[in-house]
Amino acid sequence: MSWTEELKARTGVSFYAAEPEKIEERSLAIIREELGREFVENCPADQLSVLSRVIHATADFSYRETLFFTPGVLDRARECLRRGLPIVTDTTMAASGINKRAAARLGSEVHCFIGDADVAERARESRMTRSAVSVDKAAGLYPDCIYVVGNAPTALMRLYELHEEGKIRPGFVIGVPVGFVNVVEAKELLERSGLPAIVARGRRGGSNVAAAVMNALLYQAGGR
């Protein structure tokens, strides 16, 4: 038996498989196996699908303990996506990872303003981060939106401030920035805000996590 045949016998998928959906399907099955039968049976199906996508993107099972859902957020997310609300991200990486075809099927567009010249100029003038200024721009263009934060805690902080001022009304927020400075505090602020949110508690997170959560929600809403 060749090494490729041996791998296929072990995993059920050809090493050079031309059908990535089969690899994804097998990966998600492995994730559920490793989460354990008791956990899978007791976890709400919509939460499990989001968690599984995050683990699939990171190979990090600690999200089992740290991925937090505010009450009713997944129902709210499906409603917002089926209404076609725009999706605004804090990084081009998060925007790149979101399935645009799935979003388009629901009438949603994906936006990121971090690289815009006017954002960079205002950030220099105000001495604010471009991530925070991007939230200001989003509030002016799309006050009713879905906000996805995978990198910048300052984006979450500014989002909180503008929401308190009534200048932005996100349908829900994905708050999963990664890092060490003000990251935990920004996530705690989001949890206290009363906004419907999915939060990766602690220091872990990232743009890949943000995109994984968003894609899971798009698929739940019927975008796939």
Would you give an account of this structure?
- There is one protein chain.
- With 224 residues, this protein is α/β, with parallel strands linked by helices.
- It has two domains: 1-42, no CATH class; 59-220, Rossmann fold.
- It is built from 13 helices and six strands.
- The protein has helices at residues 3-11, 20-35, 37-42, 45-58, 63-66, 73-82, 92-97, 100-105, 117-126, 130-141, 153-164, 183-192, 207-220; strands at 67-69, 87-89, 110-112, 146-149, 172-175, 197-200.
- It has a six-stranded mixed sheet with strand order 1-6-5-4-2-3, with helices on both faces.
- The radius of gyration is 18 Å and the shape is globular.
What is the number of beta strands? 6
Please give the radius of gyration in angstroms: 18 Å
Strand content: 5-15%
Overall outline: globular
Q: Domains counted in the coordinates: how many?
A: 2
Q: Tell me the strand order in the biggest sheet.
A: 1-6-5-4-2-3
Summarize the structure.
The chain has helices at 3-11, 20-35, 37-42, 45-58, 63-66, 73-82, 92-97, 100-105, 117-126, 130-141, 153-164, 183-192, 207-220; strands at residues 67-69, 87-89, 110-112, 146-149, 172-175, 197-200.
